[in-house]
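Archive entry: two folds, one per protein. Generate the first.
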Amino acid sequence: MEKNKIGKYLKYAIGEIILVVIGILIALQLNNLNDERKTENLRQVYYKQLLQDFDNDKAYIKEHSSRIDSNMVKFRAFKEIYNQPNLPINKIISKVRNLAWPLYNVQFKSNTINTLQNTGDIKLIPPTIREQLISLEKYKEQTEKVSKYNNDKSGEGTSAAANKLGSEEFAFKNIQNQPKLLEYVFEEKNLIELLIKLEFSQYMKVESEQGSLKRFKNILSNMEEIEILINKELKK
């Protein structure tokens, strides 16, 4: 009888252990599923933020490109004056005033990719999309740096011209009743030097803007490829 009781107790104990182990395994499985669900939800949030960033970047590129196109129209019109022979230097200088002079550095506002990298959550993104995102971000950063460099050079030319001419209001308005000042400011030697400085400034500005337009096309193309991949992930 004692042996029968021990056998029953052993079977009961083994059964209890098996049930506990099964319970633990189920709990672990549920916990893993819950973690996976949280991870997937977070990934979905990042995907949507990235798509929103792309929309913002597209709007910014469209606005900036439109401004550049307008500037280019003015620049081409200015270049045409050189087709006229023997124009007085002061006549050319006066046409310079019609050019677009404000400088706008390229500066993207989106930051989801940086957030992914800084938090380490970039690892949540599939390798194919991740690599393209990192590459795109680097290219955007290079675009910003090139734009700033060229604009800084253009600004230096404008500053040099301002040191020679003064303000536009000074040269073309304030001193109109001051013959000696007019004679000095509009002396041909000074005007030639001034024109060279202004030409350099405008050249660097155009280089900056034309370079930005080329880079914008590449950025838009890269974003389109990534969007296709992200939308496929969202539909899974």
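Generate the second and append.
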Amino acid sequence: MMKLIGGLLVILATSWLGFTFAGRVRDRPKQLRQLRSYLAILKTEIEYGTRPLAEACANIASQEETAVSRLFQASADQLLKGDGSSTYECFRRAIEQEWQRTALQQTEQTVLLQLCQVLGSSDRQDQAHHLTMACNQLELEENRAREEQDRYEKMYKTMGVLTGVLLVILMI
């Protein structure tokens, strides 16, 4: 009876891990799409709006509660602190603070950090141009992420369950 319960727990644990990895692979394209959408809104705010950057970020974050929107809320919070830090430093700290909660990878972080070097430190046209370039780069990453999702999501789920079954067989 104990072996059965132990085996079941092992299968459940490895299955949970497999489904967790699959969930991250599944969430990444969706989060990339959200990030591109938020950057497009930010571009519009910069080009046509008169709001300060912190208020624009807070407005974007208030649209829905997601891991990506928390990046913008943390950025707004950092900008509103008014501790004399540059715009880049505020965004960098916000990204470091919230990045683990997303399914995004290092490539997207690099794109955002490069973009943040321009935000608030150049004219509107230059910022809009860099936002467009960042959106284009993120679109390429989104396409790669979809391919990765198609290739690996089901595999992670299956491997989680099968690894558990294999461990149970080896323990018996």
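Annotation attached to the second fold: The mean pLDDT is 91. DSSP finds six helices and no strands in the chain.
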